[in-house]
Amino acid sequence: MSKYKNFRLFNGKLSFLMDRKAAITFTILLVVAFLVFVVSTGSGEMKINPLTVVSVLFGGGPEMEKLIITSFRLPRIIVALMVGISLAVAGGILQGMIRNPLASPDVLGITGGAAAAVVSFLAMFSDKNHSLTVSIAWLPLAAFIGATVIGFLVYFLAWKNGVSPVRLVLIGIGISALMQAITTLTMVMGPIYQASQANIWITGTVYGSNWKNVAILVPWTVIFVIIALALARTINIQELGDEVATGLGGKVQKQRFLLLMISTALIGGSVAFAGGIGFVGLMAPHMARRLVGSSFGALLPASALIGGILVMVADLIGRTLFSPLEVPAGVFTAGIGAPYFIYLLFKTRNS
Amino acid sequence: MNAIETKNLSLSYGDTLIIDELDLKIPKGEITVFIGGNGCGKSTLLRSIARLLKPKSGAVLLEGKAIAKLSTKDIAKKMAILPQSPSAPEGLTVLQLVKQGRYPHQTWLKQWSEEDEKKVHDALKATRLEDLKERTVDSLSGGQRQRAWIAMTLAQDTDIILLDEPTTYLDMTHQIEILDLLFELNETKKRTVVMVLHDLNLACRYAHNVVAIKDQKVYDQGKPEYVINRSLVKNVFGMDCEVTVDPLFGTPLCIPYGKGRCILEKAVAVNG
Amino acid sequence: MLLKSTAFKWIGFLIAVVVMVLAMCASIIFGYTDTSWHTAVDAFTNNNGSNEHIIIQTVRLPRALIASAVGASLAIAGVLMQTLTKNPLASPGIFGINAGGGFAVVVAMTVFSVNSLQAFSVLAFIGAAVAAISVYAFGSFGREGLTPMKLTLAGAAMSAMFASFTQGLLVLDEVMLDQVLFWLAGSVQGRKLETLVSVLPYIGIGWLGAMFIAGKMNILSMGEDVAKGLGLNTGLLKIAIGIIVILLAGGSVAVAGPIGFVGIVVPHITRSIVGIDHRWVIPFSGVLGAILLIAADIAARYMFMPSEVPVGVMTAIIGTPFFIYIARKGFNGR
C-alpha cells in the first residue's frame, strides 16, 4: 500500500493511516491559504508589498505599514479565515450526517435564527434617537444565542423516535422561512437605522472586526474543529447509513446530537462575528471531496482550508473591487456559490 | 450452544403485531435462512436480532446474554449486519469501505493497528477484491459491490454475520457468486450466517437450517430436506408446487404449478 | 378524504365559495375603522362621496379582491408545483419566483431609480419569469430531462443567489431599503386596483389553464414512465405547467410581492378534504387559498393595531406550524 503510510508509535498504542495524496494536497492548500492571507493583508487602499507583510507578521517591518496591518487588516482577515474554516467544517459534518451533498448550514435554519436574533436585539435596544442603548459589543452574543436556540429547536422538532436526516432538513427549511418572516417583520416595524444595520449583518461581512473578536473566535473555532476531527471516524460510519452504523457499534443518535451541536457551535461562532455568509458550507466540502476523497479524516482539514480561502478571497474582492465602496463578502460567496451549485447539477447530470 | 436465541420475542410496527412471542434458536456454525411470504416479518425479525429494532416484549440472547444489556460496541464485535440495499457515499473506495468494518475494534488513538491491517487484507483476499481496492464502490458491478460490503462485515471479524436479502437485486450469476462466497466463509472460517432470502430453491441449496415464518410465528424450522414439502409451501407461501430433488445438489427443488408452455409430452416422445 | 361522494364534493365547493364571499365582506368591514355592512353596500349604490365610502371603494374593496385573487393563484400554483416536483413541501417560492421578482424590483430601484408601483409590477413579473425559466432550464440538464430533485435544487440555488444579490444591493443603497422592505415582505395593503386589473388577464389564463390540464396532472402524478406509457406527452405538459405557474405566481408577486406558505399549505388541506383528483383539488385550492389569505390579511390588520403587519409575515407565522406538522407526519416516498 504505497499510496498510504502507516504510523505506529509508542509500541502500537498510537496508530493511524495516512493517505499520501491527501497529505500532499493538504500541504498545498496550506501554502495557498498562506499566500492568500499575505496578499489580502497587503491589499486595500494602501497597497503593501508581500515581503513587507511577511516581515510585519514576524514582528518587524516599517512602522506605518505595521500600524495599518495590525490595526485594520489582520483582525479582519483572521476573522475571515476562521469564519471560512468554521462554516466549511460545519458544512462537511452536516453533509456527512444528512447524507446529502446539498445539505448546508443555511438549510437548517441556524443562520436564519441568528439573523432574527440580531434584528430583534437591534430593535429592542434602540431608543428614540435611533441609537443603541447598549454596546454593540453584545451583538455577537445575540447572534450566537439565536443560532443555538434555533439549532436546539430544529433538533427537538425533528425528533420522533430519533432524528432522521430528511426530517431534520425539512423542519430546518420551515423554521428558516419562519425566521425570515420574523426578521422582515422586525425590520419593517423598526426604524431605518436598525434595518440597514441588520441588513448589512444579514448579508454577511467581516467589516469592523477587531482584536477582541479575534481573541474569542480563534480559540472557539480551533477547539471545535479539533473535536470535529476527533469524531471524523463516527461521521465516516454515519455516512454508510443508520443501520450499518449501528451494526458497526456506533451510537448513532448520541453521536448525531453531538455532531449537530458542534456544527451549531461553529456556525454560531461564525455568524456572531460575520453575519450570514452563505454557500461556503456547501461549496468547501464539495471541492475538498474532489481533491481528497470521502474519508473525513482527510476531508475535514481540506474543507477547512478551502473554506478559509474562499471567505478570504470573497472579502478581498469585496474590499478592493468597488473601492472605496465596501461590498459585503456574503454577496460574493453567493455570487460564486450559486453558479457553482448549478455547475454541480450539470456535472452530476448523468448519475 | 446456540449462537442466537430469542425468548418470547414480540415485534410490532405501531399497532400492528409482526412477530408474536417467538422462541427461536439459531445454531452456531451453520447457515440459517429465514423464508416466508412478502411482509411476513422475516426482515423485521432479522433486524431486531441485530438490535436495529427494539422489541415490543421479550428478549434476544447473543451467546446466552441479553443484547439489551450489552453495549452496542460489544455486540458489534460479535455480530455483523448487512442491511438491505446499503448505500455508500460517492467517491468512497473499496478499501475505505472495508476499513470501516474495523470501527468496533478501534479507539481514538489506535486507528490502524497491525491487526486492523491484517483483517482488512484478509477480508479483501477472501472476497477476491484486492485488485479492486482503489476503485470507488459506486463504479463496481452489482456483484462486486455486494462483495465489497461483505468484505466490510468480514473485516469486522465477528462470529456471526446477518444479511438482509443480500441477493435481491442481483442477476443470477451474481446471486450465486455471493451465496457461494458465504458458503465458503461458513465452511472454512466457521462463521454463523443468518440471512433472509426470497428464493426458496436457493435457500434449500445453501442453508443448513431454514426457518419458515407465517402468521407472526415460526411455522416450521429445520434441515430443508426434512422440512420443505408441498404442504409447507402451500401453507407458508400460498403456492401449489411440486417438490422434487435438485439434480446437482440433491436438495429440495420447488416447481410451482400454473401456466406456461408445457412441452412434456414432446420431451417424452423424443426420449422414448 | 372528508367528502367522499361527488354530491358531497359539489356541496362542499358551494359552501367554500359562500365562505369566501363572506370573508371578502368581513375584509371590507373590519379594520382600523370598522364600518357596517349597510355602509359598504351604500358605497356602491348610493355613493355620497363621504370618507367612509371612499375608503371602502378605493382601499377596502381592492384589498379584498387582491387578497382573493392572489390567494387563489398561489394555492393553485402550489398544487401544480407539488405534483410537478413530487414534493409535498414544494411551492412557487422554490421555483425562484419570489426571489427573482424581488431582485428585479430592487435592481430597478437602485440601479435605474424606478419608483412607481406600476413599474414594480411589470418588473416583478419579468424577474419572476426569468428566474423560473432559468431554474427550469438548469433543472432540465442531463439525460433524464426535468426531474423533481434537480428542479428543487436548482430552485433553491437560484433563490439563494437572488436573495443574496438583493441584500447586497440594499446594503449599498440604504435609503431604498425602507421603501422596498415592505414590498419585499409581501403585502396586499396599499395596492391599487389598476395593478390587479392589469395582471388579471394573465392570472385568468392561469386559472383556466390549470383547470384544463387537471385531468392530465392526475396521470402525471402516477410517475413519469407510467404516464408516458399511457400516451401522455410529459415534456409538453411540464412546459405547460411551468408557464401556468409563472403566470399565476408571477402575477401574484407582481401585485402583492412575495408571499409564502399559501402555496405549500393549502394543497394539503384541500387534499385531506377532497382527495387527490386534480379536477377537484385545483378549484377547491383556489377558493381555500383565497379564504386563507383574506383571513391572514384581517389578522395582520389586528395584530399590532394600528400598525400594519405585512401579510407575507402573517402567512409565515400561521403556516410554519402546519409545515412542521406535515414534515413530522411523513409522507410516501420519503
Structural features:
heterotrimer, A: 351 residues, mainly alpha, two-stranded antiparallel ribbon, 2 strands, B: 272 residues, alpha/beta, 6-stranded mixed β-sheet, 4-stranded antiparallel β-sheet, globular
What can you tell me about this protein's structure?
By secondary structure, chain A is mainly alpha-helical. Helices cover 72% and strands 3% of the residues of chain A. Chain A is built from 14 helices and 2 strands; from the N terminus they run ββαααααααααααααα. In chain A, strand 1 and strand 2 form a beta hairpin. The longest helix of chain B has 18 residues, at 172-189. In chain B, helix 4 (114-126) runs antiparallel to helix 5 (142-155). Chain B has 10 helices and 12 strands. The termini of chain B are far apart. Chain B is an alpha/beta fold and 272 residues long. Helices cover 78% and strands 0% of the residues of chain C. Chain C contains 13 helices and no strands. Chain C has 334 residues and is mostly helical. In chain C, helix 3 packs parallel to helix 8 (193-220) and helix 3 (51-85) runs antiparallel to helix 10. Chain C has helices at 6-29, 37-45, 51-85, 97-112, 117-139, 148-172, 174-185, 193-220, 224-229, 234-256, 262-274, 278-303, 311-329. The longest helix of chain C has 35 residues, at 51-85. Chain C is globular, with a radius of gyration of 20 Å. Classes of the chains: A mainly alpha (351), B alpha/beta (272), C mainly alpha (334). At the A-C interface, helix 6, helix 7 and helix 14 of A face helix 6, helix 7 and helix 13 of C.
